Amino acid sequence: MAELPRFNCKNADDVLKAVKDYDVSFVQFWFVDVLGTLKSFQITPSELEAAFEEGMGFDGSSIQGFCRIHESDMVAFPDPTTFQFVAWRPTERPVARMFCDIKNPDGTPYAGDSRYVLRRMLERAAEKGYTFYVGPELEFFLFGSSEEPTLLDRGGYFDAPPLDLGNDIRREIIFALNKMGIQVEYSHHEVAPSQHEIDLRYQEALKMADVSVTYRVIVKEVARRHGCYATFMPKPLFGQNGSGMHVHQSLFKNGKNAFYDPKDQYHLSEECKSYIAGILKHAPEITAICNQWVNSYKRLVPGYEAPVYVAWARRNRSALVRVPMYKPGKEAATRIELRSPDPACNPYLAFAVMLAAGLKGIEEKYELPAPVEEDIFEMNVAEREKHGITSLPGSLNEAIEAMEKSEVVKDALGEHIFNQFIANKKAEWDNYRIQITEYELKKYLPLL
Question: What is the span of the domain harbouring residue 286?
Answer without folding.
Answer: 119-439
